[in-house]
Design brief:
By secondary structure, the protein is mainly alpha-helical. The strands form 3 sheets. The chain has a 3-stranded mixed β-sheet. Strands 2-4 form a two-stranded parallel sheet. It has a two-stranded antiparallel sheet with strand order 6-7. Helix 1 runs antiparallel to helix 16 and helix 7 crosses helix 10. The chain is flat and about 85 Å long. It starts with a helix and ends with a helix.
Length: 469
């Protein structure tokens, strides 16, 4: 007897969870070792690089020493193998740098010890990151690309380097603002004369001295730009505009800012000069807080909750459809396109919107690429019909059913007194700060922030190192 669509869905859901668990079980076996990360406490000028054989012996002696003398790590070292690596410091303090002749006596190497239990705790979190991606067997670990920027930018080293880069840009900007503006005005006048349609009387140098934006010989670019903003010289508006444009180019000289960042800086400066202020948005409470974005681990727990309900009761079609809706909402949130998706659009998806041969969903204004794993699940809802009529994928779900199910599940998953989660929360890109709610505008700012310092150790770099080793 042929399986119906929900029976096929059940088998695929079980396979998805089984593939994820099998993968993480294999990874946990590799992580069952004690890890030593050695770093130099002092940077000695002129010291030769440590030889590979010497480093191996240093790790072995440290490992043997722990086996015999460490009360807390003695048992662990006797039961598990070891792994050692030297880690470099991205930020070196002046006090750490010494010369050989003045170094005196000190312990040159420090060590950070990572136990298997610590890595296994992280592995549990990474399983939820994998689950929220809904990968097929050959897509497992692709979720690393979703979260690699968030993880790398959270490191203390990256934050220090970014702060340093920000100070560097601020210094360049302040230096540009203090430059002399007189030569820039001369260039603007020459350009204006070449392109102006006015007669010779109108461009008499004496007349130019009477404008309210003409700079003095020692005037800075900052003051000159302020005068162009406040200028009321209507008969010299063309010259004022050309002068203002040249000043803006001089302000951003040596800075790799995009047009949006330049506009934001100039708009803020203009508002400050004219005494304008932005309207304060009214405070939002209640239902808005329930729509705030949640972390990726909580999102994955919601999806897994409904999947396990469906596996426990294969006739619970509502739970199966809710899990797939939440997966699609997460993919909408993670989409790089600028389209604003809605819960109603996802809830009312039809079989015509699911492309058969490629993992793409067609919406009115855009096409959304999803994982192969999720695509296979959605194909089950389409059935075997070949007609032109489109059928709703999630026929058992209406607006109230979805909201009530999430509110009920919130009581079981979230801490006591926590606000329940609504469907719109899944349309905000899931973040990595466990237990924290983030509103849509703040999450959008975090996603679109410019990288002052390039993120290191991306997935491609890690795979390249593993392949070479």
């Amino acid at each position: 007897m042929a399986n119906n669509k929900h029976q096929k869905l059940l088998k695929l859901v079980q396979k998805r969870l089984r593939d994820i668990d099998t993968h993480h079980k294999k990874v946990s076996e590799f992580l069952n070792l004690i890890q030593f990360y050695f770093y130099e406490k002092k940077i000695i000028i002129g010291r030769p690089v440590i030889a590979k054989q010497t480093f191996q012996e240093m790790i072995k002696s440290h490992y043997v020493g722990l086996q015999h003398f460490s009360l807390s790590l003695k048992d662990v070292c006797n039961e598990t193998p070891w792994f050692g690596r030297i880690i470099g410091q991205a930020i070196i303090l002046k006090s750490q740098i010494v010369r050989q002749e003045t170094m005196g006596k000190f312990t040159p190497w420090g060590v950070i010890i990572r136990l298997p239990e610590e890595e296994l705790l992280k592995l549990k979190a990474s399983r939820l990151e994998t689950l929220i991606y809904c990968p097929s067997a050959d897509e497992i670990s692709d979720e690393l690309q979703w979260f690699e920027n968030d993880k790398a930018s959270d490191s203390l080293t990256h934050q220090f380097l970014t702060i340093g880069a920000h100070f560097n840009e601020t210094n360049i900007l302040n230096h540009n603002l203090q430059k002399n503006a007189f030569s820039i005005f001369d260039e603007a006048v020459i350009n204006w004369k070449k392109n102006s349609l006015t007669d010779d009387v109108a461009i008499n140098p004496r007349n130019l001295e009477k404008t309210d934006f003409t700079p003095t010989k020692n005037q800075t670019i900052e003051l000159a730009y302020e005068s162009t903003i406040k200028s009321n010289s209507k008969h010299r508006s063309d010259l004022c505009f050309r002068y203002k444009v040249k000043l803006e180019h001089a302000i951003f000289d040596g800075l790799s800012w995009n047009s949006h960042e330049k506009f934001q800086f100039l708009d803020k400066k203009k508002r400050k000069i004219l005494g304008l202020s932005k309207k304060k948005s009214s405070e939002k409470k209640g239902r808005w807080e329930q729509n705030a974005g949640i972390d990726c681990y909580t999102s994955a727990q919601f999806i897994e909750y409904f999947l396990l309900k469906f596996i426990g009761n294969p006739l619970d079609f509502v739970s199966a459809e809710i899990a797939c809706i939440l997966w699609v909402l997460v993919w909408c949130a993670k989409s790089s396109c600028n389209t604003q998706f809605t819960v109603e659009e996802v809830r009312n998806l039809t079989s015509k919107q699911v492309m058969i041969n490629t993992p793409i969903l067609e919406f009115k204004n855009t096409k959304l690429r999803i994982s192969k794993g999720l695509h296979e699940l959605l194909i089950c809802f389409c059935g075997k019909g070949t007609g032109d009529r489109a059928t709703r994928l999630f026929q058992n779900i209406d607006k109230k059913t979805l909201e009530r199910a999430l509110k009920k599940t919130s009581k079981e998953i979230l801490p006591k007194k926590a606000l329940p989660v609504l469907p719109a929360s899944f349309l905000i890109s899931p973040h990595l700060q466990e237990g924290i709610r983030v509103n849509a505008s703040d999450r959008a700012k975090a996603k679109n922030i410019r990288e002052l310092v390039p993120i290191r150790h991306k997935k491609e770099d890690i795979l390249r190192v593993l392949k070479n080793n």
